[in-house]
């Protein structure tokens, strides 16, 4: 089992249900396994600091963001690709 790609995922919009916060996840796609992806929840983050929190989590997880946030095909989430240091 090897990790083929890593991404931070977040919701496109904050919800009043979560007090104007968005969930932040680390998603690792896997090859050579019955499991398609490993999803690690990183918590609920205020929308206006999501980029800073993603950078702090990147330092903690020893990954480096590449590029910028991109909308997923569904339009409900945004993702940021990260690579291992």
Task: Kindly describe this structure.
- This protein has one helix at 50-61, and strands spanning 2-11, 21-31, 37-46, 63-71, 77-84.
- It has one domain (2-84).
- The chain is globular.
- A hairpin with a 5-residue loop joins β4 and β5 (77-84).
- With 85 residues, the protein is mainly β.
- The two termini are 19 Å apart.
- It contains one helix and five strands.
- It has a five-stranded antiparallel β-sheet, with helices on one face.
H-E order: EEEHEE
**Strand residue content:** over 45%
Could you tell me the number of beta strands? Answer: 5
What are the low-pLDDT stretches, counting only 5+ consecutive residues below 50? Answer: none
Which structural class fits the helix and strand makeup?
Answer: mainly beta
* Main beta-sheet annotation: 5 strands, antiparallel
Distance from N terminus to C terminus (CA atoms, Å) equals 19 Å
Number of domains: 1
Tertiary shape:
globular
Helix content: 10-25%
Strand order of the largest sheet: 3-2-1-5-4
Radius of gyration, rounded?
13 Å
Mean pLDDT: 89
Number of helices: 1
Short key terms for the protein model shown above:
globular, mainly beta, single chain, 85 residues
């Amino acid at each position: 089992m090897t990790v083929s790609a890593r991404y931070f995922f977040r919701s496109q919009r904050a919800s009043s249900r979560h007090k104007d916060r968005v969930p932040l996840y680390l998603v690792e796609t896997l090859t050579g396994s019955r499991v398609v992806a490993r999803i690690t929840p990183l918590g609920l983050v205020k929308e206006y600091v999501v980029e800073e929190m993603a950078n702090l989590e990147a330092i903690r997880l020893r990954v480096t963001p590449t590029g910028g946030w991109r909308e997923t095909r569904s339009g409900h989430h945004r993702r940021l690709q990260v690579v291992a240091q």
